[in-house]
Write a structure and sequence with these properties.
The chain has about 325 residues and is α/β, with parallel strands linked by helices. It folds into 2 domains: about 200 residues, P-loop containing nucleotide triphosphate hydrolases (Rossmann fold); about 100 residues. The strands form 3 sheets. It has a 5-stranded parallel sheet, sandwiched between helices. A two-stranded antiparallel ribbon has the order 3-4. The chain starts with about 40 loop residues before the first helix and ends with a helix. GO terms for molecular function: ATP binding; ATP hydrolysis activity.
Length: about 325
């Protein structure tokens, strides 16, 4: 398959149309069996599992906070995590279920026969996990048709970016997170309690955009995922992309060298590139390896791929200067060598 796919010159390629694009290699980056946790994260995870407490993760975007939940579920042989994406309008109840009062009102007004409260309730991540910990026969009066499980099971619940929610959200979850129950006022205030032997595993992520309440923090196991050092980052790259991480890979060593140069405080970048951006950038750079032993030495190659690494216009200008200087240094080193 030819590359590039898009010429932008107002002409169609003389090939079969519509063009077939390749499956994105980025999909492989999200495979849970490719995830490598650092020793501190492994310990924090095991402590949370032993104590049955939520694991609260912080760290730079792209350090693997969200993917830890998928790695954990996969390694323990559980279903994929039930994910809840926190918003600025999120309330504690939303983590368990949502009730579409507007649709019910409209249906009542239009004379729709099916106006039972259960028809307008959608169970969310933690609510579904609690339901799945119970035998279906015990809660069949609560199960909408879209929730089907043949036997009770443990679930992994991912509460993503909890710091986006109002501050009271975390405090409002305290009892429910510890005792694993919730109530549905719309169903005569019915209390739904999970099986304590199948307590859901709760992973919570935060980008530290706002402080979380002390009472909430006391109920969690906490770990801050550090940005990986060069050696560990090379291991992550090798595991996910199959690029040789040893000293025999000048391409990877050069890529990491430039990557850390861009992340350095001297670069002046406002938004430093993270691991996820590095992996995407390396995928693109690999497409140019047939043109040069080390495509990074080619100025035009780096600039053509910079959009996958640097995400603001201001930072792109600064990054270009860093790249120019870095390339000149590399060429001088090559000449001396």
């Amino acid at each position: 398959m030819n590359y590039p796919f898009y010429s932008g010159d107002g002409n169609r390629q003389q090939s079969e149309l519509p063009i077939t694009l390749p499956v994105s290699p980025r999909s492989g980056l999200l495979q849970p069996d490719n995830y490598i946790a650092d020793p501190g994260l492994k310990d924090a995870c095991n402590v949370a599992l032993l104590l049955g407490q939520p694991l609260l993760l912080t760290g730079e975007p792209g350090t693997g906070k969200t993917q830890l939940a998928y790695s954990l579920a996969w390694e323990l042989g559980l279903e994929q995590p039930l994910k809840f994406e926190t918003k600025s309008t999120t309330m504690a109840r939303d983590l368990f279920y949502t009730y579409d009062a507007l649709k019910r009102f409209q249906d009542v007004q239009s004379g729709v026969v099916a106006t039972k409260f259960l028809d307008y309730i959608t169970f969310q991540a933690l609510g579904s996990a609690i339901l799945r910990s119970r035998n279906p026969d015990e809660i069949k009066h609560l199960l909408p048709s879209e929730i089907i499980h043949s036997q009770k099971a443990r679930s992994v619940v991912l509460i993503d970016e909890i710091d986006k929610a109002p501050r009271d959200f975390a405090n409002d979850l305290l009892n429910e997170l510890e005792l694993m129950y919730f109530r549905i006022p719309e169903l005569a205030n019915e209390k739904i309690v999970g099986d304590i032997n199948l307590q859901p595993i709760v992973i919570i992520t935060s980008n530290s955009e706002k402080d979380l309440p002390d009472a909430f923090l006391r109920r969690c196991i906490y770990y801050n995922i550090p940005f990986p050092e060069s050696e560990r980052l090379a291991e992550i790259v090798a595991n996910r992309l199959g690029i040789n991480a040893g000293g025999s890979s000048p391409f990877l060593q050069a890529a990491l060298n430039l990557f850390y140069r861009l992340r350095a405080s001297q670069s002046g970048l406002r938004k430093k590139p993270a691991t996820a951006e590095l992996l995407g950038w390396l995928i693109i750079l690999q497409k140019f390896t047939h043109e040069s032993q080390n495509p990074l030495i080619q100025r035009e190659v780096v600039f053509r791929t910079l959009s996958s690494l640097i995400k603001t216009a201001e930072d792109q200008e600064k990054a270009r200067k860093v790249v120019e200087q870095w390339i000149q240094e590399q060429k001088k080193t090559t000449q001396i060598g």
